[in-house]
Amino acid sequence: MKNKSSFIIIIVLLFIVGLSFSYVSYSLKNNQSNTSREYSKWDVEITNIEITTIGESEDNGYTYKEDTLVIKPIIKTIEDSILYRVTIKNKGSIPAKLGRYLYNEKNSERHLTFKHNIPKEELAPGEETIVELVVYPTDEIFEEGATYTNEYTAIYEYIQKK
Question: Alpha-carbon distance 141 to 125, whole Å?
């Protein structure tokens, strides 16, 4: 009987040692995976607009949010023009590439000409690009004494770079 109880005590002790070893191993593995996890953040957006007016041109209010900009220039004389410098920044931790960019005008105002440069194709985390939008009168059909305005929408859609 004494051998049987010694045998049971040894088995219980081995079981406890095995459980302890399993717990320590699991605890170290779980702690290691939690500390090595890296979180990614997606955040590419318009961060700033600078406006330069020449002549009597005016900005009738612009708005922007995330990837969309709406501008409303007013042109009064043939010497007028207005420049919008749009800053787009990758504020996240994921590299981005330009998916598409769109420009749309509310009215087909032939008296005004709208030009722009192409945004940077790729943005690394923390990197920014500047897009210049210019509105000026169309010389051939501009009528002195008239005031012309239009509303332009610009969309800059960046996607995750693979």
Answer: 45
